[in-house]
Amino acid sequence: MDASSWSSLRAKSAPAPSHHLKTSWPEVVGMAATPAVTKIMQDRPDVAVEVLPPGTHLLPGANPRRVRVFIDTHGAVAKTPRVG
User: Fold this and answer.
1) Model pTM above 0.85
2) Can you give the pLDDT at residue 18?
3) Which residue ranges are recorded for the region named Disordered (predicted)?
4) Is the residue at 78 inside a domain?
5) What is the CATH number of the domain that holds 51?
6) Sign of CA dihedral 42, 36, 81, 48
């Protein structure tokens, strides 16, 4: 395999650079949970979105395919949702 073939193969198999993917949504803080989840899913259809009410006990650990949306007692987003 010559150098030009190798470059072509690498370009086809390389994953999309992660620096182009959105990883946080500060604009949804204060928004109701449903439209916030819709916005996140529009931006990142590749992640699972979890809506978590106050007092939810969480297991430690990050997951690059998950966004947690923490809501307050009124159902509004309480803090910036992030991938992880």
Assistant:
1) no
2) 54
3) 1-22
4) yes
5) 3.30.10.10
6) negative
Q: Would you say residue 48 lies in a domain? A: yes
- 3-class secondary structure, 46: coil
SS (H, E, C) 56-68: CCCCCCCCCCEEE
When divided into structural domains, the chain yields a total of 1
Residue 8 has pLDDT above 50, yes or no: no
| pLDDT for the residue numbered 78 | 98
d(Cα 71, Cα 36) in Å, to the nearest integer? 10
In three-state form (DSSP H/G/I as H, E/B as E, the rest C), the secondary structure along the chain is CCHHHHHHHHHHHCCCCHHHCCCECHHHCCCEHHHHHHHHHHHCCCCEEEEECCCCCCCCCCCCCEEEEEECCCCEECCCCEEC
Could you tell me if residue 50 is inside a domain? yes
